[in-house]
Amino acid sequence: MPPFAAAVAYYGGCRSEKVRLATDLLILFGEADDWANVKACPRMLERQDTATRARLTIVTYPGAYHDFDIGPRPSREVLGHHIEYNETAAKDS
Q1: Which end of the chain is flanked by fewer CB atoms within 10 Å, N or C?
Q2: Which pTM does this prediction carry?
Q3: Does the pLDDT of residue 86 top 70, yes or no?
Q4: Rounded distance between C-alpha atoms, residue 33 and residue 70, angstroms
Q5: Spatial contact of 41 and 25, defined as CB atoms under 8 Å apart
Q6: Residue 13, C-beta contacts closer than 8 angstroms, at least 6 positions apart
Q7: So what CATH class is 6-92?
Q8: Which residues pair with 48 in a beta bridge?
Q9: To 10 degrees, the CA torsion angle through 91, 7, 28, 36?
């Protein structure tokens, strides 16, 4: 029995190595996010350990940046990364 029924990660980091999940995982990203590692997600999906029943699902929101769900507030730069609220992505997530 998995420790949780499922898990959701906002801006979670995708990895390129093989992934073995203990429970279903949904990762939500903004496609324009320059902070989270969105580019490794297709490889992570390819390398998912299918021996477990846990599922990995990745959803990306077009035009959305990091912190798309926090706001509304003005866009800004933080540690060299663009941060911007996106109402459409926030409501869907």
Answers
A1: N
A2: 0.83
A3: yes
A4: 14
A5: no
A6: 36, 37, 40
A7: alpha beta
A8: 19
A9: 130
CA 52 centroid distance within chain = 21
Strands of the sheet containing 24-30, edge to edge, are 6-10, 24-30, 56-61
Beta strand spans in the chain (E): 6-10, 24-30, 56-61, 76-78, 81-83
Q: Which residues, 6 or more positions from 3, have their beta carbon under 8 angstroms from its beta carbon? A: 22, 23
pLDDT one-digit tens code per residue, 10-31: 987 787 677 788 888 899 999 9
Distance CA 93, CA 7 (A): 13
Amino acid identity, position 43: R
First CA to last CA across the chain, in angstroms? Answer: 27
The number of residues making up the chain comes to: 93
Q: Which of 19, 24, 28 is nearest to 7 (CA)?
A: 24
Q: What are the extents of the domains in the chain?
A: 6-92
